[in-house]
Amino acid sequence: MGSSNKKKKEKKKDFQKAKLKVGKAKAKAANFTDTSFKSKSIVVNQQTLATDDIDAAEQFKHNLSLAVTAKSDNQRRDALSYLTNQISAKPPNNPVGTAGVLTKLLPLVSDSTTTVRARLLGLFKALPPSEVRPHVEKVLMYVRGGMTHLSSDIRSDALNLMEWLLEVAGDEVVSCPGGWLKTLNSFSSMLGWNPSVGSALSSKGWTSASKTTLGGAAKKGGAEAQARQIQVLAMFLGVGFKPESPVPYDSRAYSDNLYRFPMVPNPFAHLNLFGSPRDEDDEMYPDRSSRQRVFDIKWRAAITTGMDGAKREGGAVGRAAAGLDRVLNDRQKGDAPQSLDSAIG
């Protein structure tokens, strides 16, 4: 019974109101800690919040990571602008090298924001061409992906990248593994000039056969987009059919080729001794004659048929097709134009 009475008294205390004592502060516990904050300034010892003292290499790497991982379009754009300024500086500041920049930023070829893709092109143009050439195969893989993207704006910007790549490393583009046939396949997907429908176009007429494209002609500005695609195709074929300049005889160079180890990286890549097996599209076509041979077998009929149909359309498309016709005619003469301006007249 004593225990029961004790529990009742404890419960009764819980429901009693606290008695307020006027003029007296509540007693503080022995382990009380004062957490009130009355300071008007913060002093941080041995640290700084300024960006001037940050290491330039670390800041470059931070912006390189920010250009890819930032969710904000403005942050990615500003990071690319910073990287472009650092690479274009005298002397340039690029602690990761051209290979590191390309590896990190190439996925932005298919970025959804137009300004980001424009800044990316400006950054690539600031890179030294001699350092871009060894990585053409990797760059070309992303450019072809952009050329066959569902978005017409991304396809258009990918053509700008293709034009830049042909200007700085045209020979490497048409001679690297997959650079010739796979790129022609991408142009075919953009224009609808497929070898499988080439015979149908020639037999049924240029207006009766269906044309499979990526939707450029159906949208506003489709004619300008198609003309642009034909122009870059003419530039690509002009580089591929360009006659090789004869190398003057040099006895020292001749003996070096026979007895000295090659000084270039992977000099026997065209043999594919240790790489994965490649099909015809992945093969290297290092000389003009091999590119002409496979072009005549697989693409000449389809491109000629599509070009004739484009010439009948007139306007910008017809003029671009006429420039492509001149490239193919000059190729027969062995004097293919070397630039886009000479190709389109």
From TrEMBL:
The entry's localization annotation reads: Nucleus
Q: Name one GO cellular component term.
A: rixosome complex
Q: Which domain of life is it from?
A: Eukaryota
Keywords in alphabetical order, please.
Nucleus, Ribosome biogenesis, rRNA processing
Region (Disordered) spans which residues? 326-345
Its annotated function is as follows: Component of the RIX1 complex required for processing of ITS2 sequences from 35S pre-rRNA.
Q: Which PANTHER family match?
A: REGULATOR OF MICROTUBULE DYNAMICS PROTEIN, TESTIS-EXPRESSED PROTEIN 10
Name the protein family.
Answer: Belongs to the IPI1/TEX10 family.
> What's the protein name?
Pre-rRNA-processing protein
**Organism, per UniProt?**
Echria macrotheca
